[in-house]
Amino acid sequence: MDYKLNLQTGFYKKTAYNIKIEKHKMTLIPLNNSDIESIQILDKDITAILVDDLKNPGIEIQTYSRNFIGTLDKDTNMMDLIILMKEYLNVDFIFIGGGE
Prior knowledge:
This protein is mostly beta strands. 11% of the residues lie in helices and 49% in strands. It has an 8-stranded mixed β-sheet. Strand 6 (58-63) and strand 7 (67-72) form a beta hairpin. It is globular and about 30 Å long.
């Protein structure tokens, strides 16, 4: 299953991606822009994944070399995403912020 992500790519710039989760990797696939390459993140490179669903569902993927921060589509089923990440990615830490 794919999840829509608006990834922060500059100070005031966001780029639309799909998050695709497979065994031991997460791929960020750009939407609406064929000039941008996909970003592949192996789970062995992930130090933490922070998931926040307080107001705007958000995610931060921390790796050894860089952090990926963005907001998820408001209709994202956060529990499905979390279960999928736990099932396919060998990630040491996932923080889940609870909503109201």
